[in-house]
Design a protein that fits this description.
Number of helices of chain A: 13
Number of domains of chain A: 1
CATH architecture of the largest domain in chain B: 3-Layer(aba) Sandwich
Shape of chain A: globular
Largest sheet of chain A: 3 strands, antiparallel
Shape of chain B: elongated
Helix content of chain B: 25-40%
Oligomer: heterodimer
Strand content of chain B: 15-25%
Strand order of the largest sheet of chain A: 1-2-3
């Protein structure tokens, strides 16, 4: 496959590409990262260390990576999809053996200068592979069972590997993002109906089996579900995170308690306040207005990604952009649901805001793909 | 491979449609998130704001300052003095062992305390100060303060400790405080939160315990902001508490100190009551102990020594000890008979040395008998047979009723520990308590204050004051609370015929002023300060017929715990009674020899508000008294010297 297939009458070259970037998307990303710096500054008690400074450096590096990826034509990335996917599977496998345990889970490979989280990388490479697959697959074969089975396997293999770490949050993300790409590629809706039906059936079975001999989950897992459904039963133990997080959110009120005035975060009542629960600090200090503003920024990022996806006639570009949009959406949707007590605490960071290296770097690289698709779209 | 443009268009169309579906779902989800946010942050905001405040704000109690206790002249009996202690904060200290070793070189630390502190440190969060040494001297604390830069985490602190400067003199009346125990808490219904402060000091015994709530005051509170681990970040506001009330007692510290010294090492008790107001001027139980020991936490050895002493230093014999009043009860028997009109003051009874009652022989203390005696002579010489005769005529119920009018067998309401009721038995009492009928012999025994009769030194003093005034003088211990004078105990008239009282007072006057009176040796010769009294000697054993035949064994020849109790009650000046005094010397022998001299000395000390002139004593005693006065002056410790030494 080559550049010629794209029917591109005009494509910018060299540094000119800068002018053809999706600038609104760029600005939105910078704005969200700015919110992140502000919040990290606040939870550190008004200090650039220990979080803001490294986060800024990573963001700068991430922006560089993004531009780098953006400059390279999208078809190159399409050709790299299979390789990238296999490489991330290899890394996932490597994590099993040389991974560093952190927070009770095996997730990292320490590369010396940074900690690599292969599961983060997999989120993108899976989307790339699926997009490339449906770009290659003739449309009429899309819903044939055998051709449906192949992408299902592409999704399930890394999902199970991540689940073994164990990282429930990432597994769900992989599953949902992969499913989303398949849905957009035009796989018959009956497959999805079947899967959803089976899922609902499984949930019912899990609950119905409780206390019987063929109980599907372990007792502690049931207790975790209980705590999620009613955190007030154990406010100092398992439900502590959710309860404190809801208190922080709720006490923010309409306009918040003011920058650096959030008692819940300042006095350490909030758990993981600089990572997964950073949204609670934002909501406590800037209130409903602050929370909705961030939600709007995120929504706009999705909107601009979708615009790019629909503007291009290239199938790989559309699907990969959409896939990244879905991944990004799942990040913030799951994280926010979690801190608002709508979903279990599964360990998904707030994208571009939570403190953390891999996630931000990988996301910015992914947006590099979106930019590349935008720059190199057939015109 | 060139793509089919038509096919490409079709699949792109499908993508667009599916994009709409997926985008719609996402938008709906975002809407859901926003709605949830609105619910939490707008609809439920107030509730969560409250929860956040509850999270961060802790209420801390500020312990109130305990009220001081003074004597009637403003001399301090109990107060709070600054005490110094050294605390350590683990997280500031870094290497705790090194710091403690360095501190130990500066000031010697108690090994036991240190071990306890280390154990406490391991249990508590690192930012909590732990006391390493308590109640240390000014020299030591300044040494620590000077070297503070070399002792990270170590802070010299000032606290308040209860101190009893009068030491043993007021151990029984004022009592002492100690750290609140679980047992204390279990006795209090719905205890105040301040009592839950570890090692909070509350009154354990005596006045400190009986007026605990007034002395304690009300705790203040401060609101502090804490973080999730409970560390205090800052103080938000505070409400000052109310200090405990300052209490002025009716006692006179100088007199009390004198009496304590005068009782010396005897197991004895003495009470001085003001006849006009009922004020307790002195209430002394001997031997005593230093209450400051208990505030610090008494050592096991010291405590065992106190509990195993057969003289019972921990007991307050003035109100807790009850003794057969012996002959000091005779005034009551006589009054009961006089008030009933059954005898005249001139009527005589023949005393052959014993009285035969329903086949049993009751002896007079004088084997040879007193011959014909009238009321005054019988009291003066303490003839027993005369009172056997009166009692048989008037009956026990009348005598018991009269005793109660004079405060015997009645619990006086005083803020002191375990105030005893004593016993003024009547027929009903015996059938209630012993399930037996009252016997004539019981009446005979009771008539001279033996048998079932029991009275505390306080009750005997009250009795004397009531005899002296004819009023229901009520003992009073609290003179004023926070400067507010408390009602006195002068009391209303008892409604006793004044002539009868006068006869008895005259008889009591004769006891200590007539050459043949039992207390003649302990008279006061200063004019206008003459004393009226009555001796008492109460048996603590039965004298068998065989012993009587062989001659009653003399007290000096008996083991201490089988000797008679010596008692004396008195009031003075005879013409215008000012004070009533009672003295009980446990197993002291005869009242005239063991108790009356003490009572006389105490009375004079009270009347003169200090050392009396030798001229108030009989001539032949003056040399001995002078020597005694000098000895007591020498032996009395300097006032207010207790409780300030380093533990």
């Amino acid at each position: 496959m080559s550049y010629l297939e794209y029917n591109a009458k005009f494509t910018p070259t060299g540094l000119n590409k800068i002018f053809y970037l999706n600038w609104p998307l760029m600005l939105l990303l910078i704005a969200v990262a700015g919110v992140g710096f502000l919040m990290l500054y606040s939870v550190a008690g008004g200090s650039f260390s220990p979080w803001v400074e490294p986060q800024m450096k990573r963001f700068a590096m991430g922006m560089f990576v993004m531009l780098f990826v953006a400059m390279i034509p999208i078809w190159f990335w399409r050709n790299m999809a299979v390789l990238a996917y296999l490489m991330s599977l290899a890394l996932l496998l490597a994590v099993e053996f040389v991974g560093t345990v952190g927070m009770g889970a095996q997730r990292w490979i320490d590369l010396g200068f940074m900690r690599l989280q292969p599961s983060e990388l997999t989120k993108i490479t899976l989307v790339m592979l699926l997009a490339a697959y449906y770009d290659w697959l003739p449309a009429q074969k899309t819903s044939k069972p055998l051709w449906v089975l192949a992408p299902v396997l592409f999704i399930l293999i890394p999902t199970f590997m991540v689940l073994r770490q164990p990282d429930l949050g990432t597994s769900i993300l992989l599953l949902a993002a992969g499913g989303g790409v398949m849905f957009l590629a035009g796989v018959h809706w009956a497959y999805f109906a079947a899967v959803i039906g089976a899922g609902v059936g499984l949930i019912v079975a899990v609950f119905e089996s409780r206390g019987t001999e063929w109980q599907l989950l372990k007792d502690y897992q049931y207790r975790r579900i209980d705590t999620f459904l009613d955190p007030s039963t154990d406010p100092l133990g398992a439900g502590y995170h959710i309860t404190q997080s809801k208190i922080a959110l709720g006490s923010g009120g309409w306009s918040g308690r003011g920058f650096m005035q959030g008692t819940q975060s300042r006095l350490n009542f909030l758990p993981e306040k600089h990572t997964d629960f950073i949204f609670t600090t934002l909501a406590e200090e800037f209130g409903f207005i602050g929370g909705v503003s961030l939600l709007s920024l995120y929504t706009l990022i999705i909107v601009f990604c979708v615009t790019t996806a629909l503007a291009t006639r290239d199938r790989f570009s559309s699907l990969v952009t959409w896939g990244i949009a879905i991944t990004f959406f799942l990040f913030f949707a799951v994280n926010m649901s979690m801190v608002m007590g709508l979903a279990p605490v599964v360990g998904v960071p707030l994208p571009m805001v939570s403190y953390g290296g891999s996630a931000m770097l990988v996301l910015l690289a992914a947006f590099g793909l979106v930019q590349s698709a935008h720059i190199h779209r057939p015109r | 491979m060139k793509r089919n443009p038509k096919e490409q268009e079709a699949s792109h169309g499908k993508l667009t449609r599916r994009s709409l579906v997926l985008g719609g779902l996402q938008l709906a989800f975002v809407g859901g998130l926003a709605a949830r946010m609105r619910y939490l942050q707008v609809d439920q905001a107030d509730q969560f704001r409250l929860l956040a405040e509850e999270n961060r704000i802790n209420i801390r109690l500020i312990p109130p300052t305990r009220g001081d206790i003074f004597d009637r002249n403003g001399i301090i009996l109990a107060q709070n003095t600054p005490s110094y202690r050294v605390t350590i904060v683990r997280e500031d200290a870094g290497d705790v062992d090194a710091v403690v070793t360095a501190l130990n070189r500066l000031i010697p630390l108690d090994g036991e305390d240190l071990e306890r502190a280390m154990a406490e440190m391991r249990r508590s969060p690192p930012f909590l100060p732990i006391t390493l040494a308590d109640r240390i001297g000014w020299d030591d604390i300044s040494r620590v303060a000077v070297n503070a830069p070399a002792l990270p985490g170590i802070t010299p602190e000032v606290g308040l400790t209860r101190v009893y400067p009068q030491g043993p003199d007021f151990a029984h009346v004022v009592g002492y405080v100690g750290p609140v125990s679980d047992y204390d808490l279990s006795k209090i219904e719905d205890p105040e939160p301040v009592l839950r402060i570890p090692r909070f000091q509350i009154g354990k015994v005596g006045f400190e315990a009986k007026r605990e709530e007034l002395l304690r005051g009300k705790a203040g509170a401060k609101r502090v902001e804490v973080n999730a681990t409970g560390r205090v970040m800052r103080e938000l506001d505070r409400r000052e508490g109310q200090s405990g009330a300052d209490m002025q007692l009716t006692v006179d510290a100088d007199l009390q100190g004198y009496v304590q010294a005068r009782l010396g090492n005897e197991s004895a008790a003495a009470v001085v009551i003001d006849c006009d107001s009922g004020d307790i001027r002195a209430s002394v139980s001997s031997p005593s102990f230093d209450p400051n020991l208990f505030v610090r936490g008494i050592s096991v050895a010291d405590y065992r020594a106190l509990t195993q002493d057969e003289y019972r230093p921990l007991a307050d014999k003035t109100v807790q000890g009850t003794y057969p009043p012996g002959s000091t009860f005779k005034m009551i028997t006589a009054l009961a008979a006089l008030e009933e009109g059954l005898v005249g003051t001139e009527d005589t009874v023949y005393c052959p040395g014993h009285l035969e009652v329903s086949g049993r022989r009751f002896h007079c203390w004088k084997r040879a008998g007193h011959g014909h005696v009238d009321l005054e002579n019988s009291l003066k010489q303490s003839c027993d047979v005369y009172y056997y005769d009166l009692a048989l005529k008037v009956g026990m119920d009348k005598i018991s009723a009269m005793a109660k009018r004079f405060g015997l067998g009645v619990r006086h309401d005083l803020p002191m520990s375990a105030v005893a009721r004593g016993n003024a038995p009547d027929r009903q009492w015996k059938s209630d308590v012993h399930g037996q009928d009252w016997l004539v012999g019981d009446t005979v025994n009771a008539s001279i204050g033996q048998g079932y009769m029991l009275a505390s030194p306080l009750q005997l003093a009250v009795m004397s004051a009531r005899l002296a005034t004819g009023r229901a003088v009520t003992p009073r211990l609290i003179k004023s609370i926070d400067g507010v004078e408390q009602p006195d105990g002068a009391g209303e008239s008892l409604g006793i015929n004044e002539n009868n009282l006068r006869v008895l007072r005259r008889a009591m006057y004769a006891v200590s002023n007539d050459r043949r009176g039992t207390a003649y040796g302990s008279r006061i010769i200063a004019d206008g300060y003459r004393m009226a009294g009555k001796t008492g000697t109460s048996q603590v054993r039965n004298i068998t017929a065989a012993e009587r035949a062989a001659g009653v064994i003399r007290n000096e020849d008996l083991p201490w715990e089988r000797r008679d109790h010596a008692l004396f009650v008195c009031f003075a000046p005879y013409e215008n009674p000012k004070y009533a005094v009672s003295v009980v010397v446990e197993h002291g022998g005869g009242g005239s020899k063991a108790a009356a001299p003490i009572a006389r000395d105490v009375m004079l000390e009270a009347l003169y508000s200090g050392t009396p002139p030798l001229a108030s004593y009989p001539k032949k005693d003056r040399n001995r008294i002078q020597a005694q006065q000098e000895r007591l002056q020498r032996e009395r410790p300097a006032r207010g010297s207790y409780g300030n030494d380093r533990a």
